[in-house]
């Protein structure tokens, strides 16, 4: 008479349990068979060369010390055959050198050797009264391996290694209970502690490294944003200069037929085309300026309507700086020098920013501002030099945004000049700019016969 068959109600539950067990075994096999960054040495990204060599030295020290110790204990204390003891000891210790670059592969070799050693000791004469299934030297080598493993592998892999270690000890427990003194429990607990501590240190190091990388990226983005802000501000200021010239072109082209008598019809049409093109260019510039202007500027009264400053307004700028507590000496050319609008504006802004830096970082320091022209009339030299601040005073700002020097460089680059800045030996600071008095030559455009005929 056959026994009762399983009820349909119990069958789905049993299938779900078996399916869950198969999935767990599959995940365990995948984690134990998928190493992280195989071949990459531990501490391989460290700059210090001694720290990069440290894992190799530690692994070599453990392997050299544990190999003869393991052979001696297995052969003399446990009574294992000498050849077998040497082979097992080599398999248990030599892979520690591999653990520097491939700790998971080293674990497979060492764990297999430890299990085979436990099985071999079941028939040895000297096992009675000694630690089993894991002798002391096995525990030491295994824990050293766990340190390397925890610094490299994922958390799921470490959990799989820890559970596999515990399962192996549990399976050995009922085999020879009279010879087991609980070393599998000790290894299981110590393995979990070492893996947890190593994983915590690794995650903390990864977090710090990502934070440093993010700070580096943020600093680069901040510098790029500062540069773009300065270029936008310069573009807004130069709009007035260019718009003035375009307006003059438009007026001259529109009034040419009325000012010049006897113009042929073709010439009048050409002047009309020039005026229309200039008006379109002005409209495009205004649209571009609307994009460049910030919402905050528009919200506080719209675009500025004051004329752009030049070196002729430097005395007023110096006067305001003197009232702020900075003694400034100003030296300008005796004769009025005709300057390009962009050069005139750049010279004023460079002096303005240099004096602002003196007020912020060296309050009370004596400052000399000199604007001179070269003997051949080819360039304008702007020099701002300040002495060290008085001893009792403290800087109003200890850190800066970096806008000042970036803005100076952009303005000098705009007019094809040069800028030299830096501290002086006595503790002061110097800003020297060389600006050409004539604009840089524009590249010659090659016109085809068709293009030249349409002008």
For the terminal residues, how far apart are their CA atoms? 114 Å
Indicate the percent of residues in helices. Answer: 55-70%
Strand order across the largest sheet: 1-2-3-5-4
Backbone shape: elongated
Order of helices and strands: HHHHHHHHHHEHEEHEEH
Radius of gyration: 41 Å
DSSP, total strands:
5
Averaging pLDDT over every residue, what do you get? Answer: 79
Residue stretches low in confidence (pLDDT < 50, at least 5 long) are 5-9, 396-401, 442-455
List the total number of helices.
13
Q: Structural class per helix/strand content? A: alpha+beta
Major sheet attributes: 5 strands, mixed
Strand content: 5-15%
Question: What features would you describe in this structure?
Answer:
This protein has helices spanning 10-33, 49-77, 82-93, 103-121, 136-150, 155-172, 183-259, 265-292, 295-299, 314-323, 341-361, 403-414, 449-453, and strands spanning 328-331, 367-373, 379-386, 418-423, 429-436. The chain has 13 helices and five strands. By secondary structure, the chain is α+β, with helices and mostly antiparallel strands. Strand 1, helix 11 (341-361) and strand 2 (367-373) form a beta-alpha-beta unit. Strands 1-2-3-5-4 form a five-stranded mixed sheet, with helices on one face. It is elongated, with a radius of gyration of 41 Å. Helix 4 packs antiparallel against helix 5 and helix 7 (183-259) packs across helix 12 (403-414).
């Amino acid at each position: 008479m056959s026994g009762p068959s399983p009820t349909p109600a119990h069958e789905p539950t049993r299938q779900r349990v078996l399916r869950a067990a198969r999935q767990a075994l599959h995940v365990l096999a995948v984690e134990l068979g998928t190493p992280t960054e195989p071949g990459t040495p531990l501490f391989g990204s460290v700059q210090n060369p001694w720290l990069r060599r440290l894992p190799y030295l530690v692994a070599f020290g453990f392997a050299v010390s544990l190999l003869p110790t393991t052979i001696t204990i297995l052969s003399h204390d446990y009574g294992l055959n000498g050849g077998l003891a040497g082979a097992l000891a080599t398999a248990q210790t030599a892979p520690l050198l591999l653990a520097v670059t491939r700790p998971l592969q080293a674990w497979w070799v060492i764990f297999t050797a430890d299990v085979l050693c436990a099985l071999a000791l079941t028939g040895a004469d000297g096992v009675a009264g000694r630690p089993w299934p894991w002798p002391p030297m096995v525990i030491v080598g295994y824990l050293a391996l766990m340190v390397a493993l925890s610094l490299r592998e994922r958390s799921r892999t470490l959990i799989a290694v820890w559970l596999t270690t515990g399962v192996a000890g549990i399976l050995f427990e009922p085999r020879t209970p009279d010879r087991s003194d609980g070393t599998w429990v000790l290894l299981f607990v110590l393995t979990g502690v070492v893996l947890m501590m190593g994983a915590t240190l690794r995650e903390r190091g990864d977090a710090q490294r990502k934070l440093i990388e993010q700070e580096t990226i943020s600093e680069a983005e901040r510098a790029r944003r500062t540069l773009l802000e300065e270029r936008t501000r310069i573009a807004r200021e130069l709009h007035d200069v260019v718009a003035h010239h375009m307006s003059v072109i438009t007026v001259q082209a529109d009034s040419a037929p009325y000012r010049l008598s006897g113009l042929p019809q073709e010439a009048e049409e050409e002047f009309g085309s020039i005026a229309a093109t200039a008006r379109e260019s002005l409209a495009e510039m205004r649209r571009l300026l609307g994009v460049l202007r910030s919402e905050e500027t528009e919200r506080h009264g719209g675009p500025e309507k004051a004329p752009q400053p030049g070196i002729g307004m430097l005395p007023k700028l110096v006067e305001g700086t003197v009232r702020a507590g900075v003694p400034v000496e100003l030296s300008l050319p005796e004769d009025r020098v005709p300057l390009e609008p962009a050069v005139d504006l750049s010279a004023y802004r460079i002096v303005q920013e240099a004096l602002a830096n003196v007020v912020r970082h060296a309050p009370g320091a004596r400052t000399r501002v000199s604007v001179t022209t070269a003997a051949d009339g080819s360039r304008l030299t702007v020099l701002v030099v300040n002495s060290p601040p008085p001893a009792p005073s403290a800087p109003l700002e200890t850190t800066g945004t970096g806008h000042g020097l970036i803005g100076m460089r952009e303005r000098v680059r705009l007019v094809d000049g040069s800028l030299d800045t830096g501290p002086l030996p006595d503790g002061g600071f110097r800003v020297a700019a060389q600006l050409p008095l004539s604009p840089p030559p524009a590249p010659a455009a090659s016109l085809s016969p068709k293009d030249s005929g349409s002008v």
